Amino acid sequence: MTDDRQSRVSRRRYLQLAGGAAATAALAGCSNDSGELNTETPAEGANDSAGGGGGGNDTDSSDDQNNQESGEFAVTITQGQMDSGLDPHDHRETTTDIIVMQMYEGALDRDREGQVIEGLAENYEQAEPNRVRLTIREGVTFHNGDELTPQDVAFSINRIVNPDVGNLASPQSDQLAGITEAQVVDGERAVDVISDGVNPMAIGLLASYGDVMQQSWVESNDNSYINSNANGTGPFQLSNYVQDERVEYTKYEEYWREPAAVDALTITSASESSTRVNQLVSGETDIIVNVPPQEVSRINSNESTRVEAVPSTRIIYNGMRYDVEPFSNLQFRRAMNYAVDINTIVSEVLSDFADATGQPTLEGFTGYNPNIDPYPYDVEQAEQLVEESGFAGATIELHTPVGRYLKDLEIAQAVVGYINELSNVEASVNQRDFGALAGELTTGNIEDMPHWYLIGWGNETFDASQTLIPLLTTDGALSSWSNDQFDQLVSQAGQTANADERESLFQEANQLAHDQAPWIFLNRQYSVYGASSRIEWQARRDESIKAYEIMQP
Amino acid sequence: MSFARFIIKRSLQGIFVVWGVVTVVFLLRFSTPGDPITFIAPLDASPELRQRIAEELGLNQPLYVQYFDYLTGLLTGDMGYSYISGTEAATRIFARVPATVELAVAATVVAIVISIPLGVISATRRHEPADYAATTFSLAGISTPNFWLGIMLVLVFAVQLNFLPTSRRPVGIVQAVEVLVLSGNYAGIVLWLQHITLPAITLGTYFTALVTRLTRSGMLDELGKSYVDAARAKGLPETLVRYKHALRNTLIPVITVLGLQLGTLIGGAVITEAVFAWPGLGTLVINSINTRDWPLIQGCLIVIGSSFVFVNIAVDALYAYVNPQVVYD
Amino acid sequence: MVSPRTWRNLRRELRGSALAKIGIVLVLAIILVAVFAPFLAPYDPYQQDLGNSQVPPLGFSTTENETRSEMVNGSIEVVEEEVTVNATLAHPLGTDALGRDMLSRTIYGARTSLLVGVFGTMLAVLIGVTVGLTAGYYGGRVDDGLMRMSDIMLAFPSLVLAIALIGLFGGVTIRIPDPFVVLGLAPEMPPNIVLPGTVVLVVALVNWVWFARVARGEALSLRNEEYVKAARALGASDGSIVARHILPNSITPILVLATIQVAAIILLESSLSYLGFSGANLSWGLDIAQGRDYLASAWWIASIPGVAIVFAVIGVNLVGDWLRDALDPGIEGEGGV
């Protein structure tokens, strides 16, 4: 490492995180006395956990969770933020989604690896290029006891895509991009989902979005009620809702699958990561989100907690507006990519809990181009490109949210630090509230956007289209770039029914995006969770937390 | 002027100030850049939809009509509908009030319990180590930013010693007492105490320091006055002289200053809540400013502003009551 | 304006008070550090060194578990290694999460605090004294109106009002070229001093009321003095009467109040920075906010800037006490945040 750090690697601990429950099995080995096998966790070091006692429940023994003697399996999840209301169609944030998804489900679903599986629809088919037919399961009931009907499914999809349905102009309409309408099929227990043209993505979108609500319940209640109550078909039903503080659920015994293993669930929040870690270590909670790398060892060195990490579907990038100087200049944009040492940021700032990227689409997604490498770190090249661009001496300001993504502020500061190392550009960081920044990015008018911004985009569909269309096409909801050739490639891909051809068009589009550098390509974020050993649970790639998947060890 | 007339006059003045607060807050919205619709409408809302929401909110009406609507709304307890959180602003704001009141009261209790004895000791043992310690403490106390103090307390008591929780308010005092009374289970109270201790110390330190200073200097003044000597000469016990006469006269100005400092207390509560993720008005006001949730911003500012005004009136009344020589002007 | 008697009082009070001496030393030290920051700071405070992050301050070398993530056969493994992190003379106060030198950041942080404290107070004095003298001198309706306005201002706690104004109007920063760097005396240092302009404006807007009240009181008591009446009878304009007769007599209490307000504004600025509302990139409050996430692994990031704030504010408060005791203007102002 560096001079100041005398790296005395005495133990190496490999935690098989994919194994989840096997997290306590530790393999130790090291550079100077290699071969030693050790099954203990390192006891020395900053063990600032509760000083033994298995995580010391002394602080909060009577907290709002369970006591195990009663035999009830109660679980608490702590996120960074609470929900913005419980209406499943009236939000756009992962935090709200996680709270809502325990109670509501879509017609289709995804497994842990992202594959499409059946949900409330027991069968689905792409009947025509613009029509998907969903056959709705029988015997599913809402939490109020009423039976699920195809009308409810069609109504829910329409409520999202059509602002005149269900008394709501849903912010999720572009999550069901292309879908215009859902109709109940006469005489059958089925729903046709119609798109305005060829829509190869429709099934994938329905698997990630489109929670089903009961039509009569929605129509007989006002928005305020819908935002503080719930009536879904999911494995948990709402038992207590304290806005901004916590949401409590109980297991829904009539769930159409096996009832959940968890009897009582609480979701709460703490915005500071160190607070979340303290809560986990002291036994106040069972799952915490967004564990920063510097806290990982604190969790691992505690016997009753472990870290769960998985590459997420979220890409972190710096958008640069193509319509304002100096970012209108291709050389300048490329220079910014050469100036930033993304590999060092990934290893030093993120402790390798991230991957460097060089294109908008993530590895493993349909349309990922395996031939593209991240931009190399090259200060001279960057300085020269800035000179050529004619914008030497430019002063630029990076807008970044704070605490929204893993080490977002540190990443932004590191990027700015690297750019300041160029002799001919001066950069600074502007810390923004996420809500305000997102507001500016999503007005649909490029003039409202900051010139240069850090943002993260999660794409749970595992397909390039849901990244490229919204973020980079001229009319994209969050786009700050416009390139005719790129638009054409993406729209061609959207119209082709041939999977191979579609993939290669997306690959070409990714190459173009790499070369044209509308972003400074940063990193793929990992989802890093802390989990208590009282529960058996594995992290999902799509950033969701399904309490239904939690088991008792 | 009688005491009753004095109270009525102060209340009328208070109402006038509250009206001014409401007006300022209302106008704030129209002087800020950015179309509020942007923050209210869905991301991809069409111009027609934006138009519809603007009409629903009355944003197309002339300013005076909107102002009048807002005022009449307030009189019926309606602070508008927060589209961003999907609730009535008033419901949301009043749900947060107990947490803030709890914190402010706890901090004040901490301050009074510690500071007055400390001030008295300091004044009566002038130039002794106890006096120096108290003086140093109060100087440091008024000079320490309370958010930093809070973080340091978290560092020591939560992170290092893992003795107290770092943040949150899992239970309110009312709930905790309810449980205690109904079931005899005191766990709720213990939990509440554990969670409020660090925030209350954080918020209370400045006031502890301030009141210690005031008590000390007030006591020194009073103890030097002739009536004290006279009382001593009459052979009254020293404790009685100190605590009944001198302290009583010292406390009168202390009350006034505490009233004046109420703004500092509320401001301090805002940042203390931010440090400890305390779900009170402070965190709500910060969040709503960040998301530009206008009905909430306006509501919070009005609630904070008017509570300041009315608590000050109450302090004035108390002052007038405690000190009969006050001139009602 | 400052009479020989005043000087005598100041000197006498200073001789008798050790605290006043400490205050003056602290304030002078902070001013010197702020002014000569480019020479005192060992590094550019913005300069990062990602490989050298979270180095502890001298005397606090630690052994800690460092974790990294590694991909093995498609699944993520957490690798933990024990690392000794040695404190080094190169960074006596350690480094932050990006390897920036804490000493340099603390030194430069003094500039932000002091600039906001001084400019904010000056602006508040300007607004407050103008309003207060106008109200007090004219009395009647003007006085009533202006004082009701100040009542309304007082109903908003200064921090809440400041957050609201900055949050809504945005934080604008002003870049002032650093004279030492421009002259080539410290070429390695950042070329600009970043002054959080909105913060200066806002702290003045939320603090002017105190000055207005004091100035009004003075004007009210002076306007019926014989010499003021005489000047008016002689046909002197209102402006010149205020400037020549009333203002000079208000200087003392305003000076004392201003000193106390500098301390309050330094605290307010650090609170705003902590909450992320200042727009500054280099501030004690901002570093505390960043250090918050590292309490368990690098306590010094949040601790050191706080110590700097405490020293600065104690210094200013002690000087304020000294002035108040010596000049005895009989005023009370709002304290910290």
TrEMBL record, chain B:
Metal-binding as UniProt keyword: no
Record CDD domains: TM_PBP2
Taxonomic superkingdom: Archaea
SUPFAM superfamilies in UniProt: MetI-like
UniProt subcellular location: Cell membrane
Pfam families the UniProt entry points to: BPD_transp_1 (PF00528), BPD_transp_1_N (PF19300)
GO annotation, biological process: transmembrane transport
Family classification: Belongs to the binding-protein-dependent transport system permease family.
PANTHER family: DIPEPTIDE TRANSPORT SYSTEM PERMEASE PROTEIN DPPB-RELATED (PTHR43163)
Protein name: Peptide ABC transporter permease
Species, as recorded: Haloprofundus marisrubri
From TrEMBL, chain C:
Domain of life: Archaea
Subcellular location: Cell membrane
Keywords of the record: Cell membrane, Membrane, Transmembrane, Transmembrane helix, Transport
GO CC term (a single one): plasma membrane
Cited SUPFAM superfamilies: MetI-like
Transmembrane segments: 20-41, 114-140, 152-173, 193-211, 254-277, 297-319
PROSITE patterns according to UniProt: ABC_TM1 (PS50928)
Keyword Membrane among UniProt keywords: yes
The keyword Transmembrane is annotated on this UniProt entry: yes
Gene3D superfamilies for this protein: MetI-like
CDD domains in the cross-refs: TM_PBP2
Pfam families: BPD_transp_1, OppC_N
Biological process annotations from GO: transmembrane transport
Membrane topology: Multi-pass membrane protein
Domain ABC transmembrane type-1 positions: 110-320
InterPro entries the record matches: BP-dependent_transpt_permease, MetI-like, MetI-like_sf, OppC_N
Family, as annotated: Belongs to the binding-protein-dependent transport system permease family.
Protein name in the entry: Peptide ABC transporter permease
Source organism of the structure: Haloprofundus marisrubri
